[in-house]
Amino acid sequence: MSVQVTWKHDYIITNGVKLHYVTQGEGPLMLMLHGFPEFWYSWRHQIPEFAKYFKVVAVDLRGYNDSDKPKEQSAYVMDEFIKDVKGLIKGLGYEKCVLVGHDWGGAIAWCFTYAHPEMVEKLIVLNIPHPAKFSEGLRTPQQLLKSSYMFLFQLPWLPEVLIQSADYQAIETALKGMAVNKSTFTQADIDAYKDAAAKRGALTAMLNYYRNIFQQRLLNPSWGVLEVPTLMIWGEKDTALGKELSYGTEAYVRDLQIRYIPNCSHWVQQEKPELVNEYMREFLGL
Which chain positions lie within coiled-coil regions (predicted)? Predict the structure, then answer.
């Protein structure tokens, strides 16, 4: 991908951890937060597009790829993720950003925007429900079934063994297996994700996000109404998070737009990048 020659890799120390990020472009800040089991690379189709208008920063979340991987399980809680994002924005020399998040990165983006609405100009979340809607969903049999992997991830060491087996086959199964269009991920893409997960300490760190999920503010029952303009993009064929989790989000967000993408999986920004980019541009008035 020739565009990568204009991408810059860099590091920033914030909240006691060194975070790796890729950046391209100049101007206002657009900060991109990836999900599980990915890293900054999941935004490869968005970085060059939005670098025309922004300084785009796609970070490796703590525990992932080339970012620090604290050993303590207690390091992977929402309060720490929020501090990481705040430190990133400030450390990059900005007061606010357009915040974009998918999956776990989207959950962090929701919670950060509630904690620091003054630092988020606009919020864009992809295939991740509002935390209140996710909490509701976990009380339904259909979403509990779809989220059953989260309960497996609570176990010590066994999930690591299962994911590592057969050259990290579980990573390929999650990406290609869930995708509607099986050509979404090339072998080079799959290898990049496997290599990132195989870095020393990464897999346990990635799983620790889930191991703390039931003890933290993500499932806090009290959520106010968010005033930050928000765009939700949702691939309708998400097998991990049901489309119904997006229903009723307007009760929690005053200025909300939802764009559903049919025949598209959880990996929405990689499977339908042109459409995702178009919806993002429209929302941002570009």
Answer: none
First to last CA, the chain: 25
pLDDT tens digits for 219-273? 566 799 999 999 999 999 999 999 999 999 999 999 999 999 999 999 999 999 9
Q: What is the CATH number for 234?
A: 3.40.50.1820
CA distances from 141 to 133, 144, 148, 201, 242 (A): 14, 5, 10, 34, 12
Which residues are identified as catalytic? Answer: 103, 210, 266
Provide the percentage of residues in the chain whose pLDDT is more than 70.
96
For residue 258, give both structure tokens: 């939802």
Q: Which of 130, 157, 176 is nearest to 37 (CA)?
A: 176
